TrEMBL record:
The keyword Flavoprotein applies. Its cofactor is FAD. It comes from Methylocystis borbori. InterPro entries: BaiN-like, BaiN-like_dom_sf, FAD/NAD-bd_sf, Flavoprotein_PP4765, RsdA/BaiN/AoA(So)-like_dom, RsdA/BaiN/AoA(So)_Rossmann. Residues 15-403 form the RsdA/BaiN/AoA(So)-like Rossmann fold-like domain. This is TIGR03862 family flavoprotein.
Amino acid sequence: MEALPIRDAEAPFCAVIGAGPAGLFAADALAQAGARVVIYEHKASPARKFLMAGRGGLNITHSEAIERFISRYGAAATRLAPFIHAWPPQALRDFCAELGETTFVGTSGRVFPASFKASPLLRAWLGRLSRLGVAIATRHAFMGFSESGALRLLGPDGGEIVRKVDALVLALGGASWPRLGSDGAWAARLDAQGVRVTPLAAANSGALIAWSPIFRSDFEGQPVKTVLLRHGDARARGDIVVTRNGLEGGPVYALSSRMREAAAKDGATTLAIDLRPDTSLECLARKLSHRPQKQSHANFLRKAGFSKVEIGLLREARRDGLPRDSEALAALIKNAPLTVVGVAGLERAISTAGGVSFDEVDDDLMLKKLPGVFVAGEMLDYDAPTGGYLLQAAFATGLAAGRGAARYLGLAAAGGGEAQPGADQAGLSPRHLPYSRAPEASNKYSI
């Protein structure tokens, strides 16, 4: 079915597809530049994955030096650098403060809102967008483009909507946690337009390990504190958790892309765990040398300060039995090898690797093959670690795409602050668009 006509207005009409952080920020920039903006979201409410991220304490960005920060994006660092420099971590913290959410730096250098939650920030942000005249049309799925180049959408009643837009920002996310909205279906639709998309793969995901039945039964869900993980020449330190199918936690996620590639190539790969990263091999061997002859491994290690789950991990790494020699046992504790057969799939991954190649977009993130169509957020081909880098890139590229679309349309550059009360905002009222509504202050997915 055809959507009801949009009212005539001098301001250009822009559509943003996806109501996650990148899409919301692109819409924010476009509205401030004077465009009429509608955000199309195929779920029933906006920013579901953003809200999910806030369940464990929303890590909004990181406080480390900017060049070190940018280096975290690995192969994509050079391409993302201009966008991060244009919208650095401090700018994101200032934006949160404008929305009434002060932030603080944790002991790890990570930055969190004072509430630790995503929902207060989202409520304030949706209110800001409403004041800017932005509408959100939920239950609208992106279906690609018509033969004439118009935007195709699938409406909530199952009918097709064809909409001509002056500029389009695609912010559909990757393919991780698809039940929250990012299913990666856009990749085939862009591929059909000749846009090169690097295959989507799980990133920041758990390591898959074939535990013995007794270990899985006894220790599923148990944390292991302050370990050092090694994979080849890479290492990551922090807390991990034993899962039914392997290991999860920040250090695991940091190495997951390497493990994914190695396991895909060779069928399996080795992840080494140092259970006592702050104790040298020599000191540990001396401590373990004072062992009664008849004392069992389990009793001896427990009295030496090792938890049951740590002892279990050592047994999984050395299934033919733990060594009695103190130096050999110390070496195992410092370098316990576990066989990783892969990483958790997209349905459980925190983020997605792959996406639209940077060679396909210009400096404003406009697709070279589709003038007037811009791409932002996790749709782009970068693989960022956890720690605030994912959200920072989503905000920064969302802003870049929004400002790029404004420049494409000849609008004034989007500013950094909210429009002043009483300013003339040429927004699109929900009554002019079927199935649309103004952004709501809360929804049932709020935390």
